[in-house]
Structure formats: C-alpha cells, structure tokens
Amino acid sequence: VQLQASGGGSVQPGGSLRLSCAASGGDSPPRFMGWFRQAPGKEREFVSAINWSSGITYYADSVKGRFTISREKVKKTVYLQMNSLKPEDTAVYYCARSSGIVGLVRSSTNYNSWGQGTLVTVSS
Question: What residue ranges of the chain have pLDDT lower than 50?
Fold first, then answer.
C-alpha cells in the first residue's frame, strides 16, 4: 500500500489548512487511518485517527476542537482539517495506515504503512 500525503504549506497563526492522504494498492481496506507529526528536534507524535469502518475518531488533546479527521471510502482518502493553527503545530505531518490495533490507537507501532510527510509551517 502506498500513501500519498499533500496539502501542507505555510500559514499564519489562526489560519487553516486541509491535509489529504490518498491510498493506492492493497486488497483490503484499512482498520484505521491516522495522522502523526514530527516537529524539529522532537519525537513523532500522534495527532488523530479514524476507524475506517465506523468513522469513530480519536484526537490528541493538543488538537482536540481544532482539527477534524474524516475519510472518503470510495476515494480511499483520509483528510485532516486543521483550524486555528498555532506555531506549535509546525511539523512534518505523516499519514499512516493500520491493519489492526493492539493496545492504543495512538501508538505508532500499530501503523504499518506511512506516507512521505508534508510540511506544515505556522508562523507570522
């Protein structure tokens, strides 16, 4: 399975961006799709995830109320709508695919396919 992320860019604080991640290949749908991010000098961290079948969503506390994850099954695409962006949201954002979850949805070890990353810069 290949994941292609897009939609990153530069935006001022308070602005919005929408990230997209399109999946290709694979014979079966994912169990979960997620977004992670990695800021300079920091470890990769969980941002959000969605149960592909039910649509149940999960968010890190730092983005809850500002970010919204969604998916379009037919297009095999997951989105991350990011509103009220803050400088601390600056990072490379990665989409990821999970075939099954053991333990926490937020654990990166549950995701076995990763996109190439798209840079989001929030600065005035």
Answer: none
Quote the longest CA-to-CA distance of the chain: 44
**Residue 120 and residue 90 in contact, taking contact as beta carbons nearer than 8 Å:** yes
Q: Distance of CA 54 to CAs 10, 33, 44, Å? A: 33, 12, 26
The pLDDT of residue 102 is 84
Strands (E), 1-117: 2-6, 9-11, 17-24, 32-38, 45-51, 57-59, 67-72, 77-82, 91-98, 113-114
Nearest C-alpha neighbor of 88 from the set 63, 70, 115, 111: 63
